[in-house]
Design a protein that fits this description.
3 domains, 6-stranded antiparallel β-sheet, 15 helices, 21% strand, binds adenosine-5'-diphosphate, binds magnesium ion
Length: 486
């Protein structure tokens, strides 16, 4: 596989045990010829963050390091027969290529200490087997989203703010090749006949790609980073996403098996909340999760994770959320968690909530609690299920106990802006009452929204249920007052 590799003094090392974690074959840095894309194995979670590429421009030492890296990488590319590389077991390949890089470094002999040398080898391996220019961003900490609008317009979101990244792709083809590498890894494809695709990186980050002719200015890739650590309860309290009082109510509601809908727009923090709240589920409950692209990370032992599947090239073999909910009901679940209700599965979810799977949860795209209920209604009617609207609402009203509204406010902060109880029906109307809310009062000089969390003074009607299951809340928890300003 490697030209002249057999003569390499390091050749024998390539045959030794290979503790090196695998990366998919493919991707090369922008400077070098591309190997053919290959069906890659799932790589391990990313290593610790290293220098972002931006630093290379500022610091001469970094620039020198990058120059050595390019030089060695160039030599490596001359030596590798990438067609053969793609045919071999990736673990072996990586170990062999590592040995070749070590050998090239011995020949070149740049002045590097041991740690630098190690880093250099690792980075060259990443460039050779990883996702090209994207690797630097994937390694950088604190990025929430990566948005690539064609090869020359790369944006990242950090702490709620969007900024332009220095990273570029060579051209449309280069970017397309990286996209192809990502989606083919999860058995999907992208081309003119199927120009939109959802996929997932091995670490759980969600990926969407849309390419010409639908996207007018080149391939567009959007990555919602999973984050190496999901935000914890303490993080969310520290960020003032909600107050301790609100958390107490949410915790008790989870423990007492209320059915909960988390509502919010894209990126408002719904999944994060779902993850956090799920930590309150009893350890002996059997939980089944259903998602389009698995991103929940439940801490419990007894979890079954299911993921939907899009149709294949011939348009067959799709497995929908509805199919999975129906199947889940036969799996003796204590609770069902649907990552996001988008369509017909909503009805199955509601029915499950009404028939002994209390403590189930889902998220829905909506701007406020009332909107959330009508979104659920719309999804069912769009799915062609002809149910009298009143009957439908009555089902909702009895199924859903609590709606937690998440919002991404101006300037970036994400907050729970409402915790609302669904009380029941009066005539044709679903009755709700807000227990806690966030009132936005204005915007500070940096463009960041500020306001205050408030207890409305209303006691939820499900207090008895909470108490019956042993969740005793402080008497004055619901007393009308301002809880916290932010
Ligand atoms: N309260 C918060 N404060 C800061 N960042 C948050 C908060 N909640 C979520 N995030 C971050 O925002 C991004 C989007 O969150 P996510 O839960 O995936 O949103 P959604 O499911 O609504 O699309 C993630 O990177 C997440 O870590
Ligand atoms: Mg989500």
């Amino acid at each position: 596989m490697l030209n002249g590799f057999g003569r390499s003094p390091l050749g024998h090392r390539a045959l030794g045990p290979t503790p090196v974690p695998t990366r998919p074959p493919g991707g090369v840095g922008a400077e070098s010829p591309e190997p053919a894309a290959a069906p890659p194995p799932p790589p391990p979670p990313k290593a610790k963050a290293k220098e972002p590429e931006a630093l290379a421009k500022a610091d001469p030492a970094v620039a020198q390091f990058e120059a050595i890296k390019r030089r060695i990488h160039g030599k490596l590319v001359d030596r590798l027969d990438f067609n053969r590389v793609n045919e071999l077991d990736p673990r072996t390949v990586r170990a062999e290529v590592r040995a070749v890089i070590e050998h090239l470094l011995d020949e070149d002999d740049p002045m590097l200490n041991k740690a630098e040398r190690q880093r250099l080898v690792d980075e060259i391996l990443d460039e050779t087997f990883g996702l090209g220019p994207l690797e630097a961003l994937l390694k950088e900490e604190g990025i929430g989203d990566i948005m690539i609008n064609g090869p020359r317009h790369v944006f990242i979101e950090k702490k709620g703010r969007i900024e332009r990244s220095v990273i570029n792709f060579r051209d449309d083809d280069h970017l397309l090749q990286i996209i192809d590498r990502i989606v083919s890894r999860v058995g999907r494809r992208i081309d003119e006949s199927s120009p939109m695709v959802d996929a997932r990186l091995p670490d759980g980050s969600r990926v969407n790609a849309i390419i010409p002719p639908l996207a007018l200015d080149g391939p567009v890739l959007t990555i919602r980073m999973f984050g190496s650590k999901p935000l914890s309860q303490d993080d969310l309290l520290r960020f003032k996403a909600f107050t301790p009082e609100m958390l107490m109510l949410m915790e008790a509601s989870m423990k007492a098996r209320l059915n909960i809908v988390i509502s919010g727009g894209t990126g408002s923090g719904k999944t994060t909340l779902l993850n956090t709240l799920s930590s309150f589920i009893q350890n002996d409950h059997r939980i089944i999760t259903i998602e389009d692209a698995a991103e929940l990370r439940l801490q419990q032992e007894h979890v079954v994770r299911l993921e939907t599947r899009p149709p294949n090239v011939e348009g067959r073999g799709a497995v929908t959320a509805t199919d999975l909910v129906k199947n889940a009901l036969r799996m003796r679940p204590d609770r069902i968690i649907i990552g996001e209700c988008r369509g017909a599965e909503t009805l199955d979810m509601i029915q499950a909530m009404n028939t002994g799977h209390e403590g189930s949860m889902t998220t829905v795209h909506a701007n406020n609690p009332r909107d959330a209920m009508s979104r659920l209604e719309t999804m069912i009617s769009m799915a062609g299920l002809e149910l009298p609207i009143r009957a439908l609402r009555a089902q909702f009203a009895s199924a859903v106990d609590l709606i937690i509204q998440a919002n991404r406010l101006q300037g970036g902060p994400r907050k729970v802006t409402s915790i609302t109880e669904v009380v029941g029906m009066e005539g044709d109307t679903i009755i709700m009452q807000e227990i806690f809310k966030f009132e936005q009062l204005g915007v500070d000089p940096n463009g960041r929204a500020h306001g205050r969390f408030v207890a409305t003074g209303i006691r939820p009607t499900f207090m008895e249920r909470l108490e019956a299951s042993g969740c005793l809340l402080p008497h004055d928890l619901f007393r009308q007052r301002v809880l916290l300003e932010d």
